[in-house]
Amino acid sequence: MTNKELANLIFPNIDKTIEDYEAIYPEREKKEGARITRFAPSPTGFVHIGNVLQALTDYLLAKNSGGVFYLRNEDTDTKREVESAVLKIMEVLEYLGLTPDEYQYQGKVVGNYGPYVQSERKEIYHAFIKYLIEIDRAYPCFCSSETLDEMRKRQEAKKSQPGYYGAWAKCRDLTNEERAERIKNGEPFVIRFKSMGNPNRKVLFHDPVTGVIEFPENNNDMVIMKSGDLLPTYHFAHVVDDHLMHTTHVVRGQEWLPSVPLHIELFNAFGFKQPEYIHNSLLLKQDGDIRRKISKRKDPEALMAYYMEKGYPKKAVIESLMTILNSNYEEWRNEHPDASYLEFEFDPSKVGTTGALYDLDKLDNISKNIISKMDKNTIYDHVVDYTKKMDPSFYELITKYEDYTIGILNIEREQEKPRKDFACLEDVKKNIWYMYDELFIEPTYEWMKITEKEEIIRIVDTYMEKYFTEGDDKETWFSKVKEMAGQLGYAMNMKEYKQNPEAYLGNVADISTVLRVTFTSKNQTPDLYEILNLLGKERMLKRIKQMKEMI
């Protein structure tokens, strides 16, 4: 039996050839130097921050060059597929503004090189596998999982190279007649790639991140099509897809470096030009005295859901990743504070090779800067969008009092150095809840130096009866507070108090703290004058009564 006859036995309904598919998916029309990149996650879990680093790299490469960034769903590992994972992948890309130029989502296909879902490309893969069988570069393997387990144990005992090769490759040298007979008898089988590699020979590989690396040639007859669902493995499917979709650059993690010799051999077996591989460094976390790989089991920040649930602006997440993606990005950002990150010329050679530390404190600082620069209406719109999904009851409150809320968010915002209270949108409610009577129900008062009930009431009553006037400007207001401090036996300024503290009950700052805590329950807040202006006399009187009852 010839190889072609065996191939027809295995794939009787496959009549298209590689040339047919190359005609269906012709070379892309693109300008010279344009890069075609793809984000190709497996829907086997939720999106990891490392996946986003990869997607961002893909996006930069494409956009910097006027190329194409597309999304491919690599769903061939059906046993590990997680329901709704595909939906989450697209949500994350849209949240970050990394919208693909070509994709397939909820029945919609955008682009001429689909399907962009691997499970829908089975016939394409079978045509390419059929070709490999015809040229004697692939064969059916009938080894059971028990046989393979036993083989692995024997290899471990002998300290041999693990894998299916040489004398361990039991099915490699079966005759086509033997193979045909076993197939006709209904024996389950996989298809393995027939390697011609020799581990005593070396293959050179250039990665712009790691430089030139030397590997032993692959000699492992890897599985390229599984039994049961007859879907290909990642190793094989990506070769076919990247060829037909004309991918020029493949970005992936450094954990894929050991697979490079196999992938090179697969491309060579077809005579295809391989894309340029870029292996990003691993994301690390500082854990005490050690740095370790970010873990989706240990670290909530490993998953993109963490950033979306907390409401980090997409720009903050992007900026934090850009600072670890290229070593010269922070210097560029300082020189171009208002430019889009897409104006930065990404250079793969400036990607770190030893692992990149992902620092949440740094993300918080970046995010605080970004949020502080938003105008009052922009920050309000962001908070509305966030709370509508994440905190419906607070959403109802801030939309009920829209102008009031915008005023609150504008406190100390329109100034040369705006306040930086919010690292993410989740922080907003934590910082302004006391401004709403509906939430100011049983506050815990954070009294500082002055704690005696009678003195607190004396200060507050004096303020409301003699010194509070609605509409005062800030300078007049503070002058009255100082005057009241002097009348009540407190130093009107810190200099006088420091020179002779025994002569006073305290200082004007202590007076201000009593007012601040009475009306907000907090001893640290944004500008008290602006807070009182927004609260207004009616709310202030209500809160004084509430404070007297509670203390």
3D structure, described in words:
The protein has 551 residues and is mainly alpha-helical. The protein folds into four domains: 159 residues, 3-Layer(aba) Sandwich (Rossmann fold), CATH 3.40.50.620; 88 residues, Orthogonal Bundle (Glutamyl-tRNA Synthetase, domain 2); 60 residues, no CATH class; 98 residues, Orthogonal Bundle (Arc Repressor Mutant, subunit A), CATH 1.10.10.350. The protein is built from 22 helices and 14 strands. Strands 5-6-9 form a three-stranded antiparallel beta sheet. A three-stranded mixed beta sheet has the order 13-12-14, with no helix packed on it. Helix 14 packs antiparallel against helix 15 and helix 18 crosses helix 19. The chain is elongated, with a radius of gyration of 33 Å. The protein starts with a helix and ends with a helix.
Write out key terms for the chains shown.
551 residues; mainly alpha; Rossmann fold; Glutamyl-tRNA Synthetase, domain 2; three-stranded antiparallel beta sheet; three-stranded mixed beta sheet; 22 helices
